Amino acid sequence: MKAKIMFLQEVRNSVDDFAEREGRRPRIMLANFGFAENNHDITETATVLADMGFDVDMEPWGRTYIDVAQDALDNDVHVIGINSIKGEYKSLVVKLLEELASYDREDIMLVISGHIEAHNIKEMYELGVSVVLVDNCYEKFAKGILSGLETILF
Question: Which pLDDT belongs to residue 136?
Fold first, then answer.
């Protein structure tokens, strides 16, 4: 338990440092394409990231990649987090990244959370995803997001 508190504080300190330099906390918008019977994964991700100090927005269910891109622009987010999108992730990731590029917003990171099959992880990175949540290791996930934002913004 003490180790979890220490890692949480370490990430919070990094988020605070980011906020001091950027003038605001790192903002992530979590989206779940289509309709899901259970949104436990995305809710867990939102809660953990908020506990770490991220500013977290959640998209309603049933959004398209066009809706998600437009909402990301309207809400001025740094990161879009997509919950695991079984089977369709490849085309949806490509379409979402293309939509962001059409607005000249390749600076918005795309990350993936949820239950990811190991054989899909490498392909996600090849498609342009910046960070993938693996084995519910939120510390690495958050640090990966912050590291990517450092590269993009500073």
Answer: 82
Determine the structural domain holding residue 109 and report its residue range.
Answer: 2-153
> For the chain, what is the domain count?
1
Q: Which two tokens stand for residue 115?
A: 């239950």
Q: Cβ distance 80 to 111 under 8 Å? A: yes
Q: Alpha helix locations (H) across the chain?
A: 2-22, 40-51, 65-74, 89-102, 118-127, 138-153
**CATH code assigned at 118:** 3.40.50.280
Q: pLDDT-derived band of residue 88, with 50, 70 and 90 as boundaries?
A: low
Q: What is the pTM of this model?
A: 0.91
- Give mean pLDDT, residues 65-93: 86
Question: Which contacts (CB < 8 Å, 24+ apart) does range 126-131 have?
Answer: 127/90, 127/93, 127/94, 127/97, 128/93, 128/94, 128/97, 129/93, 130/79
CA 59 to CA 29: how far, in whole Å?
7
Distance (Å, rounded) from C-alpha 96 to C-alpha 31? 11
Q: N- to C-terminal Cα distance for the chain? A: 34
